[in-house]
Amino acid sequence: MTVQDLIEKLNLKILVEGELDREVTDCYIGDLLSWVMGRAPGDSAWLTVMGNINSIAVATLADVSCIILVENAALDAEAKRKADMHGVTILQTEENSYSLAVKIHGLLA
Asked: What residues contact residue 50 under an 8 Å CB cut-off, 6+ apart?
């Protein structure tokens, strides 16, 4: 499954368009950035409410496929600029992490 597939199947809003053809093989939920940095699997969709510049650095280090801001969490301007620079895809949904993770799991199963 690709990031583009997730966008289409889950009706996600694109905030920053990075590599939409990137493969998504897992899903990770977390808001404690140091925890995510050491534990998020590469090529995963990372579900969080953290829309700041630090989350862009973590996404890059963890090599996740995309960040999905849940519950309509905001992306600040500095983070958007940095995500554009580094090609990090950032998506948004009104759903909560649990509901979205269940749907992603179903799509990946």
From this structure: 31, 33, 69, 73
